[in-house]
């Protein structure tokens, strides 16, 4: 099938693309992607970071970062996608009392809150292509891409379209999540994307009342999978109410509670990612 | 060929009394868990139940029901579903059964998924069932459209939407509600999963994933609120090990919540 496959081409101005993925839904990809992007900026304020929400069907980034509004159109001649309220072009920034967030683009900015995005694969491919290429990212050191769950159209479209510096696989400790995470990792191997490592999320819950630790979703599973896959564990993030509360408020924990152990865990993931990128791309 | 397929489709599902989709805009809220537990609760109540697992990328149900990797056979009327017990009270068909290597990633684009789902929905010889539960992947994509198109010939009683209480979940599920309204799928109700965690040590309840979001969403959209299911490590570990939670922990608050939801569901299916 010579016709139709996109040529892999870097995004102008973007040095490294890091995808945050998992075969499984609901393990914390978006939460991790947001806090990873903010962690990269916190660890080294000289770095510029962008955030692309590629979860076309369930875009969470606008909610997690409390970003709203219409991306601005520039003078370029862009064709519209049906169902969108405006063309994508300028990623969103906003001013607030918190440190500036990464430049962000998401399908969530382009459609109404309640509108489902009922698109077949081909339209999804087209939307992803636009969000990668027809957004004025400027000059970025890192573009963090939040992937949707699964191993289908979106994953293929992104990996075929742009060179990816590395993939971060997120999983909770339970086997059911790890099975899917493993498939996710295998998929990246198939398309020759380096897997930087695993993040074990929701690893343990500490009762705020009595401090008792419960491994609600099992324990250590991600660590074992990392060993099996021959990759490292980039970090371990506990299940903490604060992460969900700050996410619901749209003020991710890395910036709203920078001294908390949860924020520290995410910043450690960010350093580990930077280190692994240097190892894989010397 | 299409006419014969449509006729056959009708036949294969003709003895299935009720078809219920389990949907969510959001991943990881517990669709497969709820599907499995509802099926077990309905069976516990004496019903003949089937589960169709159309999550191609992450088929979880075989593991949750501990059916391993059975061979699937065809008979004159189509694919024979896998039964979890000798009494044939719970039947299962999952894409997981058709994969050579269960650990292999299914990295397919839409059209290929659509074609397989078409076969799946049409060609399974379910026989006589009270309820067929259809577990779907998250979102509103090719798989969902394929399921609806193929089930169109047979009646779909409606959909149950599963959400966790927090804002990122209810936001996505709200989109799913709109999807149902647009495609004419009746919303049987909303279930709020992972609603509160009771510390096994001191019994303090922590709302790790918030609380009440599902109920509010039901009010906001004029849907029925079917109930809340708490976050229960015993449920997670039963599923991990493929054990029947309804047999192991029948006195738990979790079982009582699931049981009550299954009764409400049955009443609503029977009065439709």
From TrEMBL, chain A:
> What is this protein called in UniProt?
Iron-sulfur cluster transfer protein NUBPL
PROSITE patterns registered for this protein in UniProt: MRP
Q: Which GO terms describe its cellular component?
A: mitochondrial matrix
Q: Does the keyword Iron-sulfur apply?
A: yes
Q: What is the lineage of its organism?
A: Eukaryota, Metazoa, Chordata, Craniata, Vertebrata
One MF term in the entry's GO annotations: ATP-dependent FeS chaperone activity
Record flagged with keyword RNA-binding: no
What this chain does, per the entry, is described as: Iron-sulfur cluster transfer protein involved in the assembly of the mitochondrial membrane respiratory chain NADH dehydrogenase (Complex I). May deliver one or more Fe-S clusters to complex I subunits.
List the InterPro entries hit by this protein, alphabetically.
Answer: Mrp-like_CS, Mrp/NBP35_ATP-bd, NUBPL-like, P-loop_NTPase, YlxH/NBP35
Task: Give the subcellular location.
Answer: Mitochondrion
Q: Domain of life here?
A: Eukaryota
Pfam entry (one): ParA
Cofactor requirement: [4Fe-4S] cluster
Q: Where are the transmembrane segments?
A: none
Offer one example of a GO biological process linked to this entry: iron-sulfur cluster assembly
Family in the record: Belongs to the Mrp/NBP35 ATP-binding proteins family.
Which keywords appear in this protein's UniProt record, sorted alphabetically? 4Fe-4S, ATP-binding, Iron, Iron-sulfur, Metal-binding, Mitochondrion, Nucleotide-binding, Transit peptide
């Amino acid at each position: 099938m010579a016709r139709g496959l996109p040529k892999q081409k870097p995004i102008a101005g973007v040095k490294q693309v890091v995808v945050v993925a998992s075969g499984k839904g609901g393990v914390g990809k978006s939460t991790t992607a947001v806090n990873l992007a903010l962690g990269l900026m916190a660890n080294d304020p000289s770095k510029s970071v962008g955030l692309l929400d590629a979860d076309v069907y369930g875009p969470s980034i606008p909610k997690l970062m409390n970003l709203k509004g219409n991306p601005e159109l520039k003078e370029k001649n862009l064709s519209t996608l049906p169902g969108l309220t405006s063309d994508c072009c300028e990623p969103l920034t906003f001013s607030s009392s918190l440190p500036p967030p990464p430049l962000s683009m998401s399908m969530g900015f382009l459609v109404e809150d309640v509108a489902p995005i009922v698109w077949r694969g081909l339209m999804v491919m087209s939307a992803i292509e636009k969000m990668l290429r027809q957004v004025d990212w400027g000059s970025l050191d890192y573009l963090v891409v939040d992937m949707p769950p699964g191993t289908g159209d979106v994953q293929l479209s992104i990996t075929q379209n742009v060179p990816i510096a590395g993939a971060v696989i997120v999983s909770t400790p339970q086997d059911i999540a790890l099975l899917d995470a493993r498939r996710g990792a295998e998929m990246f191997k198939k398309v020759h994307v380096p897997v930087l490592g695993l993040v074990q999320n929701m690893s343990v819950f500490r009762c705020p009342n009595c401090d008792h630790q419960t491994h609600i979703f099992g324990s250590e599973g991600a660590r074992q999978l990392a060993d099996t896959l021959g990759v490292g564990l980039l970090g371990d993030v506990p299940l903490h109410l604060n992460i969900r509360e700050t996410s619901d408020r749209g003020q991710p924990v890395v910036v709203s509670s920078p001294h908390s152990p949860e924020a520290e865990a995410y910043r450690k993931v960010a350093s580990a990612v930077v280190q692994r990128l240097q190892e894989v791309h010397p | 060929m299409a006419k014969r397929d449509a006729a056959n489709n009708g036949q294969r599902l003709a003895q299935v009394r009720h078809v219920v989709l389990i949907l969510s805009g959001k991943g990881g809220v517990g669709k497969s868990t709820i599907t499995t537990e509802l099926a077990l609760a309905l069976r516990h109540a004496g019903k003949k139940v089937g589960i169709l697992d159309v999550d191609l990328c992450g088929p979880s149900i075989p593991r949750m029901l501990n059916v391993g990797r059975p061979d699937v056979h065809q008979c004159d009327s189509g694919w024979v579903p896998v039964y979890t017990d000798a009494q044939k009270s719970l039947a299962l068909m999952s894409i997981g059964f058709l994969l050579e290597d269960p650990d292999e990633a299914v990295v397919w684009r839409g059209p290929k998924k659509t074609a397989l789902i078409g076969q799946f929905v049409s060609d399974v010889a379910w026989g006589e069932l009270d309820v067929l539960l259809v577990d779907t992947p998250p979102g509103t994509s090719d798989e969902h459209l394929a399921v609806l198109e193929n089930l169109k010939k047979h009646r779909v009683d409606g959909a149950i939407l599963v959400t966790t209480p927090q804002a990122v979940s209810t936001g996505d599920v709200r989109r799913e509600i709109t999807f149902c309204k647009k495609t004419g799928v009746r919303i049987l109700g909303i279930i709020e999963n992972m609603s509160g965690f009771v510390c096994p040590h001191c019994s303090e309840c922590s709302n790790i994933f918030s609380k009440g979001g599902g109920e509010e969403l039901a009010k906001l959209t004029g849907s029925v609120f079917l109930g809340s299911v708490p976050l229960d490590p015993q449920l997670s570990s039963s599923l991990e090990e493929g054990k029947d939670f309804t047999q192991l922990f029948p006195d738990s608050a979790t079982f009582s919540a699931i049981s009550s939801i299954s009764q409400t569901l049955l009443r609503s299916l029977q009065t439709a």
